[in-house]
Amino acid sequence: MMADRGRLKRAKLIERVRTAEKRKVAAEAYEAEARRARLAGISERTMLLGQAYSGRSSVADGDELRGVVMLSAQLHALGITAAKQADHARVEADARLADLASADRRQKHAEEQRRGLARLLDERNNRPVLPTTRQTGTELD
Fold first, then answer.
1. Is the pLDDT of residue 129 over 70?
2. What is the count of structural domains for the chain?
3. Where in the sequence does UniProt note compositional bias of the Basic and acidic residues kind (predicted)?
């Protein structure tokens, strides 16, 4: 009986640990996805800004043209760098989401084991006690 209580207590502890682990992994997945979205937005805005500068047609002299071309090239390079970082962040976010799915499966497994053990112990405690010896003979004896 004490061993059963100990097993149930251990199962509850494992379930709590798995739940905490799942929360932690979910927070990490959220942060990775937010980082990916932020970097993708920066990349897109930087590329658009570079295209806007390169498309300017009202340039007064060669010096201004050189400045516009340089700024456009630098913005384009920054956009490419941000796109590479966004791709890396996407890979990391995907890995974190896979970790979250794994943690979710472990947590559900721990919960199912705890419920199964609790059900087994409840059935064992509520099982009617049958007499160990049976009466033999009849009332006529």
1. no
2. 1
3. 103-126
